[in-house]
Amino acid sequence: MSDHPTTAAAAAADNAPAAPQYYERHIFFCLNDRGKGEESCARYGAQDGFDRCKSQVKSAKLSGPGKVRVNKAGCLDRCAGGPIAVVYPEGTWYTYVDKEDIDEIVESHLKNGQIVERLLTPPDVGR
User: Which residues have C-beta within 8 Å of that of residue 52, sequence separation ≥ 6?
Assistant: First the structure.
């Protein structure tokens, strides 16, 4: 291990402001299909949720540098709560069931920075 601090650690030690992020927020949708009848987000309409979110973000003019990026993801290892999406940098995990849930995540969290409490994935839900 090096005796020299990492760049991030050095910046924090100097109380330097954080570098601007390319995107303000990312939302990742698990689109994984485990196959063989196993629980997975793909079995519960994850692609529809992703498509709806991407469309709503674009319509609201929230997409692009400095704004929001909607991404596909492979397995996020929380299949029991599927379908699953996670918003970063907050690390907020959501379970959604329909287009109204997606619309609420876009309006409340992605647009206004307010977590949608009723859609939070319980912290103990995993694979």
Answer: 99, 102, 103
